[in-house]
Amino acid sequence: MKAYIFPGQGAQFVGMGKDLYENSPLAKELFEKANEIIGFRISDIMFSGTDEELKQTNVTQPAIFLHSVILAKVLGDDFQPNMVAGHSLGEFSALVAANALSFEDGLKLVIARANAMQKACELQPSTMAAILGLADEVVEQICAEVEEVVVPANYNCPGQLVISGTIEGIDKACEKLTAAGAKRALKLNVGGAFHSPLMEPAKVELQAAIEATAINAPVCPIYQNVNALPTSDPAVIKENLIAQLTGAVRWTQTATNMIADGGNDFVEVGPGNVLQGLVKKVSRDVQTSSAAIA
């Protein structure tokens, strides 16, 4: 069974999507439509901007979304998913690719999400850290012992969990986790504590936008971040999308459940190949590849 997976923030690179724009009239049309909706030429930044420009949250999130979604659209009849999932931001790409959300509505939600997250980051200095080589339960336990806000945020694969919280909370947790035997406790270069209670202001802002957006039943089940379970119910999809900003990305559990449900051919749609590596850490037996136009 074919599982299509969509990457999140961090997968961006300068030049992303340029081949699509140059080789597909449909891609060109969609990029130009996106430039209009966004109000600046995001395609120029994607194709030939600087790393710095591409790293701005209000550029990064729509850029990754556009690369993923336009690639899925250009695949046309070759895009035949039995199941889909996306990592954090990638969940929005997955929903558009699976026809649950229109291209325009998906892009508008991603822009609203990026702006809301940016504002929440500015309200309180906060960060994230990758913890390598410890069992999830140990990381959860130590986070719970720290008195500051610090929570597990991204369950990426066995032995790799990203935590999120206040700067002080992350520093204390990293110290304790290193003492508990973590191979590495590495602070990440991110703007804030994504997927933590500190994103509550962003969640409130985004909730209104999500509730006002039409979401249809997707062409196949989507496995959502907050519970790693498949659904095709638009009401449940909305609820889980709203919970996603402050809830953890349960990617390890998502990949495990997709494989248990018959997913054995994972195709990553969008920039990079990070998700393929994470899926392989869950099971060496599945096939992984990157989507590409012929």
TrEMBL record:
Gene Ontology MF terms: [acyl-carrier-protein] S-malonyltransferase activity
Domain of life where this protein originates: Bacteria
UniProt-annotated catalytic positions: S88, H195
Top EC category: transferase
Any single GO BP term: fatty acid biosynthetic process
Catalytic activity reported: holo-[ACP] + malonyl-CoA = malonyl-[ACP] + CoA
Keywords for this protein: Acyltransferase, Transferase
Domain Malonyl-CoA:ACP transacylase (MAT): 5-293
GO cellular component: cytosol
EC number(s) reported in the record: 2.3.1.39
One Pfam family hit: Acyl_transf_1
Keyword Methyltransferase annotated: no
InterPro entries cross-referenced by the UniProt entry: Ac_transferase_dom_sf (IPR001227), Acyl_transferase_dom (IPR014043), Acyl_Trfase/lysoPLipase (IPR016035), Mal-CoA-ACP_Trans/PKS_FabD (IPR050858), Malonyl_CoA-ACP_transAc (IPR024925), Malonyl_CoA-ACP_transAc_FabD (IPR004410), Malonyl_transacylase_ACP-bd (IPR016036)
Family membership: Belongs to the fabD family.
NCBIfam families in UniProt: fabD
Listed name of the protein: Malonyl CoA-acyl carrier protein transacylase
Species of origin: Pedobacter chitinilyticus
Encoding gene (name): fabD
